[in-house]
Amino acid sequence: MALADDAGISRASAARLLGAIEKRHKPISEAFGSDAGVRLMRIDSELILGALRASNDDGFGALPVHDSLIAPARFINLAAEKMVEVFETLLGRANTCQVKIKGIKVPHMGEGRRLLPTCP
């Protein structure tokens, strides 16, 4: 009903649309409506908070931006290592994603770098 109300369509149309989405994404269809997204967002938040704490503990600050960090250029590799360590500690398994380092210039703060997790 929420989809029908938000999209301004009939409930029957919303049901057909949801059915098509579930069919297209069959491998993960059992996760739809299960709050899996909320659980994944919580893990993402814990990962970034852990990486921020580790950065502070190692003597450099970082700023969170969604699922990434902005850190001083001279500490960027250490920040990337912290993200991987926190991931592996939090989930109890090796990280299959790579941490991508993307250079960004922030004029009012000097040069900074941003870490972005990427998965194959």
Question: Which helices and strands appear, and what pairs or packs with what?
Answer:
Elements: H1 2-7, H2 11-24, H3 36-57, E1 63-65, E2 68-72, H4 76-91, E3 98-106, E4 110-118
Antiparallel strand pairs: 1-2, 2-4, 3-4
Descriptive keywords:
120 residues; 4 strands; four-stranded antiparallel β-sheet; single chain; alpha+beta
Characterize the structure shown:
The structure is a single chain. With 120 residues, the chain is an alpha+beta fold. The chain has 4 helices and 4 strands; from the N terminus they run H-H-H-E-E-H-E-E. The chain has helices spanning 2-7, 11-24, 36-57, 76-91, and strands at residues 63-65, 68-72, 98-106, 110-118. It has a 4-stranded antiparallel sheet, with helices on one face. Helix 3 crosses helix 4. The longest helix is centred in the middle third of the chain and has 22 residues, at 36-57. The model has no long low-confidence stretch (mean pLDDT 85).
